[in-house]
């Protein structure tokens, strides 16, 4: 009887550990991907371009420019939460901080996916701007169904409308606002990896505006005559932007940006090349160290937090723009001292 009585609380505690879930999410080191390499047989950053004679303008690269991630685990049991906390590698945070109660998990996942897609676009624009590709009125989206569906495509550069040059978005919008529904608009455009063309579009109507409806979204962006594809699935958030931009720059210039070092890093990037802070910097540093990195690019605003987990095996390089990141890597390659956290 004594033994049975003694076992009851032990069994009860074991049930609690294995069945009861806790309102926490664990954050820890996640997968890291070499933006110069391949995933599932595809280049992580794939530039589809030729020099006009069948030769590629993409230069060979080697080594590592790794993007880093944070792993998340939800639906933890009490036992799993205790084990992760005791490991010292994972952090437990209240679930509401990761999944706000006013939004569903699907809504949050969709927002993260949209942020990742936006980071890919910004990474492309930042890299092309750094490489001095000129800006053009660029089609960002085509409404389908809509007047332009099947005639214009995402990524097209609009050069002329009704035989009038449109050097920027303001000039383009001024022409569109002077139209009426039912009118025809003749657009001269350039398309990536294809000949330039001309298309005639009959404008539709939209209750939100009195002028003709073209059914496209445009922006002023640096334009190149080739496609850049980013092939990473199931990765959310905007923090891969900096490393994607560096991979594009590396592939379109001679030499290796990493200078033979195993470089990893993180950071959001804007279309004009500004590097922004991210979450989970210490977890990403740990993931980079586990992968073998010796240099880690840190957004300037994350430096204080990064120093709390500093390890002499990892050189922490402070960056606030794409240009600063490229300059820092060139400095390291030349044996110099880059800006540090």
From TrEMBL:
Q: According to the UniProt entry, where is the signal peptide?
A: none
One annotated GO molecular function is: serine-type endopeptidase activity
Under the heading InterPro entries, the entry gives: Lon_proteolytic (IPR008269), Lon_Prtase (IPR027065), PDZ (IPR001478), PDZ_sf (IPR036034), Ribosomal_Su5_D2-typ_SF (IPR020568), Ribsml_uS5_D2-typ_fold_subgr (IPR014721)
**Record: active site:** 239, 284
Question: Does Protease show up as a keyword for this record?
Answer: yes
Tell me which Gene Ontology terms the entry assigns under biological process: protein catabolic process; proteolysis
* Residues covered by the Lon proteolytic domain: 234-332
- Name the Enzyme Commission number(s) assigned to this protein: 3.4.21.53
Q: State the source organism's domain of life.
A: Bacteria
The yes or no answer to whether the keyword Ubl conjugation is present is: no
Keyword list (alphabetical) reads: Hydrolase, Protease, Serine protease
Enumerate the PANTHER family for this protein.
ATP DEPENDENT LON PROTEASE FAMILY MEMBER
Protein name according to UniProt: endopeptidase La
* Species name: Mycolicibacterium cosmeticum
